[in-house]
């Protein structure tokens, strides 16, 4: 559990983990960014007593929320952004990661549980280029949210690869667990789609300029994030349709295969029906049946069966039933 405060200076960005500096930074109207994964009491006091956050906002920050949101508290804007990660690269084991963002005119607070790639990458970028920090907290928030959106792209690509492999298995029938795999992928894809659609609405509100904490010159950058997320939603919808099509194709193939089996059994039964009749006639053993005492009666019966069976088989092949 770590907390890092990034403070804009005339020469760049300095970093500290001393929460006691925040009050002085506010009094001096300096620009700073607090990135934390802590949930301890000092952080709670900082948010309530120093940053003057609403108790409901503090509660939402310290607890996980199931969906994205944007709420304007007047002096600051509270956002809940979700990214996605795949455990061991498996899209069937996809989880969402939450990032809480509090954006004010001169400061930014981001909170997440455990290490998170997006804010770490932005912090590392400060060492190479501190212009983002010079532009203000709204641009730092944009940089973090943009990288959160980037987390969706590898997941959508992994879905594409899994669905391509699944379609190959459906056609070649190389796997016996196709239906369970389809439903596991559909469950993960539905989770991705639900998160993406709700988050698209939040990003649309940010890009429209509804909130005064986001200056007009930053709106094109937020619109760019929204456009990226529209693409993610479209990809999720497309993959959902592909999974439904794969399931329909598999069920259709299974039905066709069953029909072929039933057709073969019906033709065999049809061929055996007259043979069974012949065997039944000559199996009655009446005294006055001349064929019973005929020297060639047995070969004649077998020959008649073979002739009838062969004739019916040739007829079925002529009719293209075989």
Gist of the model:
The chain has 322 residues and is an alpha+beta fold.
Describe this protein with a few key phrases.
7 strands; 322 residues; 15% strand; Methane Monooxygenase Hydroxylase, Chain G, domain 1; alpha+beta; 2 domains; seven-stranded mixed β-sheet; 10 helices; Beta Polymerase, domain 2
Describe the structure.
The protein is α+β, with helices and mostly antiparallel strands and 322 residues long. The chain has two domains: 251 residues, Beta Polymerase, domain 2; 58 residues, Methane Monooxygenase Hydroxylase, Chain G, domain 1, CATH 1.20.58. 60% of the residues lie in helices and 15% in strands. It contains ten helices and seven strands. The chain has a seven-stranded mixed sheet, sandwiched between helices. A hairpin with a 2-residue loop joins strand 1 and strand 2. Helix 9 runs antiparallel to helix 10. The radius of gyration is 36 Å and the shape is rod-shaped.
Characterize the largest beta sheet: strand count, sense, and whether it forms a barrel: 7 strands, mixed
CATH architecture annotation of the largest domain: 2-Layer Sandwich
Q: CATH H-level name of the largest domain... which superfamily? A: CorA soluble domain-like
| Structural domain tally | 2
By DSSP (H or I, 4+ residues per run), the number of helices equals: 10
Reading side by side through the largest sheet, how are the strands ordered? 2-1-3-7-6-5-4
The helix/strand class is alpha+beta
CATH-derived topology of the largest domain:
Beta Polymerase, domain 2
**Number of β-strand runs:** 7
**What's the pLDDT, averaged over the residues?**
83
Q: Low-confidence segments, ≥5 residues, pLDDT <50? A: none
Distance between the termini: 71 Å
Please state the CA-atom Rg, rounded to the nearest Å.
Answer: 36 Å
Helix content: 55-70%
What is the H/E string?
Answer: EEHEHHEEEEHHHHHHH
Query: How would you sum up the global shape?
Result: rod-shaped
């Amino acid at each position: 559990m770590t907390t890092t405060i990034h403070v804009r200076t005339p020469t760049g960005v300095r970093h500290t983990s001393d929460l006691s500096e925040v009050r002085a930074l506010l009094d001096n109207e300096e620009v700073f960014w607090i990135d934390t994964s802590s949930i301890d009491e000092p952080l709670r006091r900082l948010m309530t007593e120093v940053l003057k956050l609403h108790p409901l906002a503090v509660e939402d920050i310290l607890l996980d929320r199931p969906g994205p949101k944007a709420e304007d508290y007047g002096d600051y804007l509270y956002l809940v952004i979700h990214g996605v990660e795949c455990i061991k690269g498996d899209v069937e084991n996809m989880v969402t990661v939450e990032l809480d963002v509090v954006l004010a005119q001169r400061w930014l607070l981001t909170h997440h549980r455990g290490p998170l790639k997006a804010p770490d990458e932005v912090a590392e970028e400060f060492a190479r280029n501190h212009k983002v920090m010079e532009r203000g907290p709204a641009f730092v928030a944009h940089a973090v949210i943009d990288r959160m959106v980037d987390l969706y792209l590898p997941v959508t690509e992994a879905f594409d690869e899994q669905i391509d492999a699944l379609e190959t298995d459906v056609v070649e029938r190389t796997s016996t667990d196709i239906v369970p795999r389809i439903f596991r992928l559909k469950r993960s894809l539905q989770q991705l789609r639900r998160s993406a659609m709700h988050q698209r609405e939040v990003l649309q509100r940010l890009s429209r300029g509804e909130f005064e904490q986001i200056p007009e010159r930053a709106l094109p950058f937020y619109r760019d994030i929204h456009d990226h997320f529209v693409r993610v939603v479209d990809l999720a919808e497309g993959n959902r349709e592909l999974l439904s099509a794969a399931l329909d194709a598999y069920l259709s193939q299974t039905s066709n295969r069953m029909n072929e089996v039933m057709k073969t059994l019906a033709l065999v039964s049809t061929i055996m029906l007259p043979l069974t009749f012949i065997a039944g006639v000559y199996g009655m053993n009446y005294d006055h049946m001349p064929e019973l005492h005929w020297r060639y009666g047995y070969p004649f019966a077998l020959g008649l069966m073979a002739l009838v069976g062969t004739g019916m088989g040739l007829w079925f092949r002529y009719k293209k039933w075989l």
